[in-house]
Structure formats: structure tokens, C-alpha cells
Specification:
The protein is an alpha/beta fold and 382 residues long. The chain contains eleven helices and seven strands. It has a four-stranded antiparallel sheet. The protein starts with a helix and ends in a 9-residue tail after the last helix.
Length: 382
């Protein structure tokens, strides 16, 4: 069961509770499902009970107790535990890993893409700074994965002046407007003109465009790099600027070029290259990947399952560093798992090997897709 399928399962549980008169709420359009946080357990967790507590007029933990049996009876759910103020922690039954791998195989580079920003314009204001430029360029792609469209606007900030406080697009002139003819309400010294009876009526569609809410601007001012990162080359330079959080000063050094485990960029790209090597070596053995549940692959399955939520949060919080750090987590899980994928010595490929290969190949797809969003290459050989 994929996170998307589990989200639908949670909503069906809410609908059954409403139909049976246990809850009096409007069934939400979406249920957030993520890997469990600190203090959680199982494969996934959802805060749906906390979301419904106020409209239901009940404590969140009581709402969770109502939803728990409905979820437990759902196909593919092995157990449900309640933690904290009312989080539902879900342990999946058989087939969860296989279903996730099939989902990644089906969607390929589009895995993790959603529609939470569908139809929205996301204006980004940035200063003329190399780190801000790279962050904005990356966010254009990340926002697009969630159905939105990011627009980048440059701003000039004089050191002795405060940053402009505008938070919407009201200061942007509309094309075709003549500023010399504009009047400020209440300050026009000329007498008011009488209304014209033969004036054409306003276009309703145009009025709708003029009165609809203006998109909110996000000002991106990440801490500038202490020196020019371009000597590192395009891939290492982008990683050096994107991997730290926006408020952290990036470290510009040759360490980003080292092919060692201490270099996170190397681990991510090496993990991707290893998945390609596993596919080539498996083909030489006449072995192909076949999605099935994989014993011992829980950490890697969890990292892959959490990728869509990370993409969503990176888009909503304008934080590409979240994606970069999750790629490191995924790469580390793959590198710890890779030694079990292919048979050793005279051992013949088995169903378990084919299942592990499919999982490793899915990890390669996610790593390549994530690096592409960051604007970094993912070589097959390293």
C-alpha cells in the first residue's frame, strides 16, 4: 500500500465513522500520511484525529479511538496504535513494500508529484546573489512537482535601506496602464465627472480577475556563500548551496569534491550509480527485478515512502534543503542494503533476490529524480 492509497484508506475510515453516526463532521478532501515522528511506531502515522477534533467537538484522542477500529479492519492494515495527543500509527500488512515499488515503477520520475499547489502562482523575490539564484531556480522545479508555478522577481536592496515590506503583487504595474492618468482616491483636486450613461459595461471576467486574491510573495534571502562556489563545478557548487538550511552559512571547500563517505553528495551519487551497477550485474546473471515484500528492507522502504511528503514540504516551505537531506537518508539506506541484493558465490538468483533488486532499482529512480530537481547530474558510473 502506497502513501496515496493509505491516505484514501484513512478517508474511507472517516466516512464509515460518519455514516454510522459515530462522528458528525465533513469528510476532508485529503488525509496527511507520513512516516512516524519521534515517539511514534509502525510504518506510517496520520494526524487526521487532531484535524477533526474541533469540528467533531471531541478530544482528538477520542476521535482517534473512534477511527481506530475502522482503520484496523481495512485491507492491508495489520495494526493501529494511538500515540501522543491522538496520532494514529499504522502498521501495514503484507504487500506494502511491493505496492510501493510498483508505484515507483509506474510513475518513474513523476513519483512523489502531487497537486497541493495546483493552479497557484508562487512569486519568489530574491536579491542578486548566487545562492539566492540557485535556491530560486531549484524551487521553480520543486513547486512544479506540486502543480504550482513559481515566478522569480529580483529585488535591489541597498545596505543602508530596510527591505521593502510589500507582501503581495499590488506594487507590480499592470501591462497597458498609463501611470500619468492614475488618480489617488480622495486626493484628486479636479471636480468629479458626472456619470456617463452610455459607458460600456465592465467585462465580468475582467472584474473577476481584478478582484481575485493576489498571490503572496515569498522573499528568499538565504545566508550568502562566503566565497564564489563556481570553482567547485556545477554539481558540487549547487550541492554546497542547497544542502544547508537557508539560515545556515554554506561551506565552500574542496571537501564537496572528495569521493569519500564523509561527503554527502558523493554518497548520494554513488548510491545511484550502485543501483545501476546492480541492474547490469543482475542482467549478466539472467535476473530481473520483481516487486515483492523484502525482509530487512524496512529502512529503505520507509525512505522511499517518505519521499512524496518531503517534496510537498520542500515546496510549501520553500526549502530545497529538505529534499537534499532526504536524498542522503535514502542513499544511506540503499548503501546499507545493497550487499543483500545479488546472490553470492555459486548461489542461484531467487525470488528474494529479484524482490531486493526491484527495491534497489526503485531507490535509484527516486535518487535520480531528486538530484534532477536539485539541478545535479546522476551518473550511471562513478
Amino acid at each position: 500500500m502506497t502513501p496515496v492509497e493509505l491516505s484514501r484508506t484513512v478517508l474511507r475510515a472517516v466516512r464509515r465513522a460518519v455514516d454510522e453516526g459515530e462522528l458528525s463532521v465533513v469528510v476532508p478532501v485529503r488525509a496527511v500520511v507520513t512516516p512516524p515522528g519521534p515517539g511514534g511506531c509502525g510504518d506510517y502515522a496520520t494526524n487526521i484525529a487532531l484535524q477533526l477534533a474541533r469540528p467533531a467537538g471531541r478530544p482528538a484522542r477520542q476521535v482517534a479511538e473512534i477511527l481506530r477500529p475502522h482503520l484496523t479492519r481495512s485491507e492491508g492494515v495489520a495494526d493501529v496504535a494511538i500515540t501522543g495527543p491522538g496520532f494514529l500509527n499504522i502498521r501495514l500488512g503484507g504487500g506494502a513494500g511491493a505496492s510501493l515499488v510498483r508505484e515507483i515503477q509506474r510513475r518513474r520520475d513523476a513519483y512523489g508529484h502531487g497537486d497541493i499547489l495546483a493552479g497557484q502562482i508562487v512569486p519568489l523575490r530574491i536579491p542578486y546573489d548566487i545562492r539566492a539564484e540557485v535556491v530560486a531556480d531549484t524551487l521553480v522545479r520543486i513547486v512544479a512537482t506540486q502543480g504550482g508555478r513559481a515566478e522569480v522577481h529580483h529585488i535591489h536592496i541597498h545596505p543602508s535601506r530596510a527591505e521593502p515590506a510589500a507582501t503581495d503583487l499590488s506594487q507590480v504595474k499592470t501591462a497597458g496602464t498609463d501611470p500619468s492618468q492614475a488618480k489617488t482616491a480622495g486626493n484628486d483636486p479636479s471636480p468629479a465627472e458626472p456619470p456617463r450613461t452610455n459607458a460600456p459595461q465592465a467585462d465580468p471576467a475582467r472584474l473577476h480577475r481584478l478582484h481575485r486574491p493576489r498571490p503572496q510573495i515569498t522573499t528568499l534571502r538565504p545566508t550568502p556563500a562566503p566565497e564564489d562556489p563556481t570553482p567547485l563545478g556545477p554539481d558540487a557548487a549547487r550541492w554546497a548551496l542547497l544542502h544547508p538550511a537557508s539560515h545556515d552559512r554554506p561551506r565552500i571547500s574542496a571537501d564537496h569534491l572528495l569521493q569519500r563517505e564523509s561527503n554527502p553528495l558523493f554518497r548520494v551519487r554513488y548510491a545511484h550509480a550502485r543501483t545501476r551497477a546492480l541492474t547490469r550485474n543482475a542482467a549478466a546473471l539472467g535476473c530481473t527485478g520483481d516487486p515483492e515484500d523484502v525482509p530487512g528492507g524496512g529502512e529503505l522502504v520507509g525512505a522511499l515512502a517518505g519521499y512524496p511528503a518531503v517534496l510537498t514540504q520542500a515546496a510549501l516551505h520553500r526549502a530545497p534543503d529538505r529534499l537534499a537531506r532526504h536524498l542522503v537518508t535514502t542513499a544511506d539506506a540503499l548503501l546499507a542494503f545493497q550487499h543483500t541484493v545479488l546472490p553470492l558465490g555459486d548461489e542461484k538468483p531467487s525470488a528474494a533476490h529479484r524482490a531486493r533488486l526491484a527495491l534497489a532499482e526503485a531507490a535509484g529512480t527516486v535518487l535520480a529524480g531528486g538530484l534532477s530537481l536539485l539541478g545535479i547530474s546522476a551518473p550511471d558510473y562513478l
